[in-house]
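Example record used in the benchmark description.
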Amino acid sequence: MSRGFAVVMGIMLASSGAAQGADRPPIESWGKPGVTFDQYRADSVECAKIGYFRDVSQDEPAKRFITGFTAADNNLNGGGDASDWINSILRTQPDRQKRRLHAIQVGDVERCLAGKGYSRFQLSRGEVKMLKRYPRGSEARHRYMHQLATRVEAAS
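Model output (structure tokens):
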């Protein structure tokens, strides 16, 4: 089993919500009619690597994060106290910056998949229920998702 394949599937499922419910968005994935299982896995790994190995250091959220931490450290090293340091960090909104970076990485993965002819689809409640029966990362779960992915209608 490939770690990269698990990463791309995790990115796709995590980005769309962990469970389907009234207050949660439906689970989405990507499919392509007629794609073989081996090609599906290879494409997944290739696209996952693009997002996973992206150098985010020049992306705006990372720059804001680094600038904020640098300022906080300079303040602390210049005689400021811990509460000033914490307040400086909070002003950088690290959780928001992390979410923005994640969105950039997911966008890279999605553009790669779309470029390979894949299209997004939603899992039905029954499909979500069946998916939950398979352990995350298992071969059976990958094969089930491939089965769903090959039934996707071609994007128009």
